[in-house]
Design a protein that fits this description.
Elements: H1 3-9, H2 24-30, H3 35-57, H4 62-67, E1 76-81, H5 83-86, H6 91-102, E2 109-112, H7 120-125, H8 127-133, E3 137-141, E4 149-150, H9 161-174, E5 178-181, H10 189-194, H11 196-201, E6 203-204, H12 207-216, H13 238-252
Parallel strand pairs: 1-2, 1-3, 3-5
Antiparallel strand pairs: 4-6
Helix pairs in contact: 2-3, 3-6, 3-13, 6-13, 9-12
């Protein structure tokens, strides 16, 4: 896996808190980069997310939907999720730019707590970090890693569907905020099966398992149909992230 892709999905400072404060220079060193090179990659990802937001705002009627989003001035919006949300150019980062571009005076703060590879069980264990943020809203897109099957092709899912349901409900009940549930996106099973790193690790995903997660989410989750994927068949491309961002805005507006 190349360094740029690692930086896109991995944020060590979120999971290595026991090492003390990790500033940008120390994080850059973890990736084997100097500070300026690291910052350049971050800026490129941020620019892509901003450009995608600008493209969405140019779609007739979309800017007005952003105006109608129910976030009030001064509110805090937190994201809980896995790699789809931790992605440096994720749907949540696109949402951040949509609000900054369209509603700059509202002072709405967005904090992305998503961690690549996180299951619902791990998200439950990380609740203190969410408590600390005291969010008014929580946008949660979890369950894709729960649905991953180990010892493929016949092994169990990483987290049982009953445990996934319990965890999601416990998350909602533990934090007094407005919760918005976003369903994990469908995978491309053929690409997943052909992706060598997954073959070597004996990991796989099936859409029946992913769909089962959406069915046990509290309430009615936001669903992004036909979101585009990168070569591994699991992670979203930038176009796929745009589709999820648009679906979230459509649902909330």
């Amino acid at each position: 896996m190349n360094t740029e892709r690692l930086i896109r999905f991995q944020q060590p400072q979120k999971v290595l808190g026991y090492l003390g404060r990790l500033d940008e220079e120390r994080v850059a060193g973890l990736f084997g980069l100097g500070l300026e090179a690291y910052r350049g990659i971050l800026q490129a990802f941020d620019a892509s997310a901003r450009q995608t937001a600008e493209e969405l705002l140019a779609v007739p009627g979309f800017a007005e939907k952003v105006d109608r989003l129910p976030f009030e001035p001064g509110q805090r919006v937190a994201a809980v999720g896995e790699s789809t949300t931790a992605d440096r150019q994720s749907w949540f980062e696109i949402l951040r730019h949509l609000l900054a571009l369209r509603r700059p005076g509202d002072g709405i703060s967005l904090v992305n707590l998503a961690v690549s590879g996180q299951t619902t069980t791990q998200a439950l264990a990380a609740l203190p970090g969410l408590y600390f943020q005291r969010p008014d809203w929580v946008l949660c897109m979890l369950g894709g890693n729960d649905a991953m099957r180990v010892a493929a092709p016949h092994g169990p899912t990483q987290v049982s569907i009953a445990e996934t349901e319990r965890n999601l409900r416990a998350l909602e009940e533990s934090v007094p905020a407005r919760w918005v549930w976003v369903a994990p996106t469908a995978v491309d099973e053929a690409r997943v099966a052909a992706y060598q790193p997954f073959q070597q690790a004996r990991l796989t995903w099936a859409n029946d398992d992913v769909a089962a997660v959406a069915k046990v989410m509290p309430g009615t989750p936001v669903v992004a149909e036909g979101a585009d994927l990168i070569e591994d068949g699991v992670h979203l491309s930038l176009a796929g992230q745009r589709a999820v961002a648009a679906a979230v805005v459509d649902a909330l507006s």
